[in-house]
# Entry
Amino acid sequence: MRPTLLDIARATHTSVSTVSRVLAGGVSAARMSHDTRVRVLEAANRLGYRPNLVARSLRTRRSQTVALLVSDIANPWFGQIASLIEQSLHHHRYSLVLCNSGEDEELEREYLRLLPGKGIDGLIVVPVLHSRKALMELLPAGLPLVVLDRPIPGIACSVSSDQEQAAAILCAALERAGVKRVAMVCGPQRIVTHRRRCELVASRFEVIACHEGPAQRDTGRRAYIKFLHIEADAIVCTNNFLGQGVIDSLADAECPPTIGCFDEIALMDLLPVPIVCSVQDVPLLAEGCVQQLLPQLRGELTKPQPLVLPTRAVPNRRFQALLMQRRESSAAPGQ
# Structure
């Protein structure tokens, strides 16, 4: 049978309350003598004691657990940010539960109803729902909450990248490469990030074709087939999954088009295609979520402000070579 606090108390000739305070740590344990703490901890290790976390959470009403509900765990961007959030929360003695809505509103609603009943202390969500009312009516009042990536008006605790700045630096890089006419590959317009990115790119270039679909590789592949007979200077994709799908279809292309993309494409320096990406600062986004959540978990009275982070443009070698060729051409005599 699993050893109990009583077993440790008997082994150390102390009381159950003494053992409980030592194992709980913190201020209560610090009040105990050094010898008592050492004796209890050694006995606990020797007997193989493991705390009953369910019983502890019922007693303290805290599970030391935070849920992260993302919209598509298949996308490496979400996998990376989930890993960084988990590492930061672990540093603060919280565990992470990861859930995936798959961009499905009904599945997201199901998770939002379910998770509070699992005893989570807080929630970080990349929402599919796009209104405060729709989100908050599913959550208990007072649950610590941070909205990641897709800000919702009326929810102050949010962490996102500056979409206007992200689009501006991507468009500026494409303009330096001589791009004027683009074909767009868009994720669902009901999702604010995809919709806003489309709008901002369309305000800078002539969009001669557009393909919308789920933010998956297959949508990018289908878009490229659709664009085969369209003379666009570049194909712009509203996330990296869409961009990867387009690139998957370029294997046999003799003269591949320039690709502009939001979020970085893995190993793009090795690809024989000119690519420039507007890249978000994933480590800062992850840490921003934790720092927005911790004061709420501690019950601190604060006035949270939405955290909006800048992005940067990252070209691959082929895109840099394309820019160099244009500079050399414009500098040549008679040009």
